[in-house]
Design goal:
The structure holds two protein chains of two kinds. By secondary structure, chain A is an alpha/beta fold. Chain A has 21 helices and ten strands. The N and C termini of chain A lie far apart (55 Å). Chain B contains six helices and eleven strands. Classes of the chains: A alpha/beta, B alpha/beta.
Chain lengths: 455, 194
């Protein structure tokens, strides 16, 4: 394994006040989600509908996709299919070449992050301007987003101020979010009005109509898509839903789960290109059809990318998005990424306490924590865990299946903790890091029970 | 085989057995005693402004005075005054200077403060997004309780484009501090005609 979540998290938590700020800020977003959810008496019913619609979609996906393609094509949208990230990037590159396009604006699309589109185009000498404020900030800093909804949540306003001072010549030391946002507005409006190509993601694609919906708060997807003569929308095939009426269920769930808003400011429904505009839609597989075939993991494809599971996760909140070293971090990322590359992402399902909070807040009822646990078993069976972990697990299996040895070790351990605490409370013991060790009880529960039962 | 065939074949092979679609009982979803009051409360909580008016006089006067004062406005509502058909042919570069956009909405949604706008009501798709200040006009009787009812009243595929807009453009990407006026309109005022 090249990078491990624990090692990267260690870097993140080195700054304790910042870690605490990150933790509290995301918890605050989680609380806003709770308030929004509790405001609707039918919330649980909505989750159930969302879950069932997605179950139906996955079970009839090949037909829905054909229906969608047919309708979208009839609407004048050019539909492309990409088996993997490479094909996705090449399709987009070809369109850019055909038109000799130089000015490109892109709104938030986790799929293009997953496919590393920006880097691909950069190697060809083509620059893409990310237009979501958070994404523009991290793009200036040459960092990936650390959160799928709040891309710059790992940064403080002082960081943004320094970045904007360097790239947008804002006043040094002016940390006012209002001032900084205004600077980005001016900068990006100039980019929008001269754009020749707008790339957007897709939140929902509707089989029945051949149209698709893009949601933003800033309006950046629309500013680009309605200006540029060419619009390319990119979607993983799981973004499909059967009918337009189902949008009501998902739009009610999405923003409430994501940020606690009742709906995003803009929910844009694209059906046809405007006159003289070219509209392309790239449908991407990139491992998704394989995931669909994994019975235990297929329903991870129901995800609508709200990030509620990020905000509630005690591990994500305290380790930051970059420690997940993938485009989609957090609990959902930890069940999606092992499918893409099991070896490189073998650490992720272990970056969890299995507390189950992710599952409880998921608007489409994905059993995230159960899948994390199941991935661990697959990863161990495939031999992708560190030898030290494997050996210690084998050791534990031996101990737990031999009661006499278990009791002996327990007794010895308690003795050591009483007599020689320094043997436990030292740097070599990873459980001692940032933690006080508990006081060892005199007796084990078994000893206590045997003694007390006699009374 | 093409990527298309490969993908569709893999999906057909791997998809689980058919699961039924749920029946969505709209009767069981939220209703408000006063849907206008709810609409107003929600919109104000997300940075929008709501004005209840009995007729269009106020707006007509506003439009006249905007034009007299040389403000660059785009009006797309026939009942308000002269419609700026030329907006259809203006470039983004030109529209970027639009101070105010007057746009008619079809349906308002009480639960989230959103207003549905068809492409034909915008003249140019950019207008409601690129203008500095957005004026939306809806009729009170067209405010529904929730999004399910809204989708029953509109036909999303009737035109090439349509949008739900809920308040002004905003962002909280810098330290979660809410800032109104990200890329789109800096303000959104919704006039509700009684």
């Amino acid at each position: 394994m090249a990078v491990k979540h624990a090692e990267l998290a260690e870097k993140f938590i080195a700054d304790e006040p910042r870690t605490n700020w990150h933790d509290e800020t995301l918890w605050f977003v989680r609380e806003k989600r709770d308030k929004a959810a509790h405001g609707l008496p039918e919330w649980e019913q909505l989750r159930e509908w969302g879950s069932q619609i997605k179950n139906n979609t996955l079970s009839n996906l090949s037909n829905y996709l054909k229906e969608f393609e047919e309708k979208a094509t009839a609407n004048g949208i050019k539909v492309h299919w990409a088996s993997d990230a490479q094909e996705h990037n090449e399709i987009i590159h070809k369109i850019i070449q055909k038109h000799g396009i130089q000015k490109i604006v892109k709104s938030k699309s986790m799929l293009t992050e997953e496919c590393h589109l920006n880097e691909f185009l950069q190697h060809k000498g083509i620059e893409v301007v990310d237009t979501d404020l958070g994404e523009r900030i991290v793009q200036f800093r040459k960092e990936p987003p650390s959160h799928i909804v709040l891309p710059a949540i790992h940064l403080k306003k002082e960081d943004v101020s320094a970045t904007f001072h360097e790239h947008l010549q804002t006043e040094k030391g002016n940390n006012d979010p209002q001032y900084l946002t205004e600077a980005a507005r001016q900068h990006l409006r100039n980019k929008f009005v001269e754009s020749q190509l707008a790339i957007t993601g897709v939140n929902f694609a509707i089989a029945e109509t051949g149209g698709f919906v893009v949601c933003t708060n800033e309006g950046n997807a629309d500013m680009g898509a309605h200006t540029a003569p060419v619009h390319i929308a990119c979607m993983g095939f799981e973004k499909l839903i059967p009918k337009a009426a189902h949008l009501s269920v998902f739009l009610r769930l999405l923003a409430r789960s994501a940020t606690g808003q009742p709906i995003t400011t803009y929910s844009s429904h694209f059906n046809k290109p405007r006159s003289n505009q070219e509209m392309h839609l790239v449908i991407v597989d990139n491992g998704r059809s394989k995931q669909l075939g994994r019975e235990d993991f297929r329903n991870s494809l129901k995800c609508i990318r709200c990030a509620a599971c990020f905000n509630t996760c005690p591990v994500y909140r305290r380790s930051g998005g970059h420690s997940y070293h993938t485009a989609v971090a957090g609990p959902i990322g930890s069940i999606l990424n092992p499918n893409l590359d099991m070896k490189a992402n073998a650490d992720l399902p272990f970056a969890s306490t299995l507390c189950g909070s992710c599952t409880n807040v998921c608007p489409v009822k994905i059993n995230i924590h159960e899948q994390l646990w199941k991935w661990r078993q697959v990863i161990v069976a495939e031999g992708y865990v560190a030898t030290s972990k494997k050996i210690s697990m084998l050791g534990m299996r031996f101990v737990f299946s031999n009661p006499k040895i278990y009791r002996l070790i327990g007794k010895t351990g308690r003795g050591i903790m009483h007599l020689f605490p320094f043997m436990i409370n030292n740097k070599l013991n990873v459980w001692f890091k940032q933690r006080e060790m508990p006081e060892a009880p005199k007796d084990s529960f078994r000893d206590w029970y045997l003694k007390n039962r006699k009374n | 085989m093409s990527a298309r065939e490969n993908i569709l074949k893999a999906i057909a092979m791997n998809q689980p057995k058919l699961a039924e679609l749920p029946v969505i009982d709209i009767g069981s979803t939220i209703h408000y005693e006063d849907s206008y009051a709810q609409f107003r409360t929600v919109l104000e909580s997300i940075g929008g402004k709501v004005e209840l008016i009995s007729d269009l006089t106020v707006l007509k006067d506003q439009l006249i005075s905007d034009r007299l004062n040389g403000k660059f406005v785009v009006n797309t509502i026939e009942t308000l005054g002269e419609v700026d058909q030329k907006a259809a042919f203006l470039s983004a570069f030109e529209l970027e200077k639009v101070e105010k956009g007057y746009v008619q909405g079809t349906v308002g949604v009480a639960e989230n403060g959103a207003v549905w706008i068809y492409e034909s009501q915008m003249i140019n798709r950019l207008v409601p997004f690129i203008c500095q200040h957005l004026i939306l006009v809806i009729e009170k009787k067209n405010i529904v309780d929730n999004l399910h009812q809204a989708y029953e009243k509109i036909d999303v595929s009737k035109e090439g484009f349509g949008v739900f807009i809920a308040g002004p453009s905003k962002t909280a990407d810098i330290e979660q501090s809410l800032v109104i006026g990200a890329h789109g309109a800096r303000s959104a005022t919704i006039y509700v005609i009684e």
